[in-house]
Amino acid sequence: MAEVLKSSRADLRVAVAGLGPIGTKVAEALDRGIDGLVLVAVSAQNPEKHKGWLSTLTGTPAILPIEQLSGVADIVIECAPSKLVRSIVAPFVGSGKTAVVLSAGALLDNEDLIELAKQNGGQIVVPTGALIGLDAVTAAAVGMIHSVRMVTRKPVVGLAGAPYIVENNIDIERITEPLRIFEGTAREAAKGFPANLNVAVALSLAGIGPDRTRLEIWADPTITRNMHRVDVESDSARFSMSIENIPSENPKTGRITALSVIAWLRKQRAALRVGT
Asked: Rounded to whole angstroms, how far apart are CA atoms 14 and 99?
């Protein structure tokens, strides 16, 4: 009788770049254990700040500068400020590895990273994050999508300090009722709200692109959750999606964003994968 051989594939080595609310949750999940994956390194702008937290982990990931992560890992999870995306992603995709990008808006300013990945057998992954239904949008895009419109409503604290608000002298701190502060394309929104609208860029990349995806942004003092509604018209289906995300410790980011990354990581060596 032939001997049944177990998979001899080596564990995929994962690095986490950035230890804010998302990065720490992802690192903790990897430390608790995800089949076929191992946390080997983390990077943070202020490593000393995180040493106490890192000491609570079961494993002992290396604390490395960003430029050294690609030398020890197969996958990097980017959870850093958008200005660091290029320095995190390029070394990985340039050496045929995988970069999971949370700061999706930064890809619009670094589109050559996609070509770099293509030329070297690397991959850039934009996870579902704080949105739902990207599988449906991706499927509809195989046919013909006529329009995609998204309306985002956020508590005032989640929008305060955004470049678009500062540049246009919009006073949202004292509003007492919902105020529409932006209407335009996903590309324009990504520039004006780089820490807030990565979901809109992910939606645009799944569908008809950042220049045809339309967006409204509302500052709403009456809500405590980040709310998104998406309406899609296509030749295969008409559908709408709504989600209300509970903010993480960072009011600009929903808790479900980290869970989305963890779900993607679990798929990498799973016997059953659900979704496109």
From this structure: 10
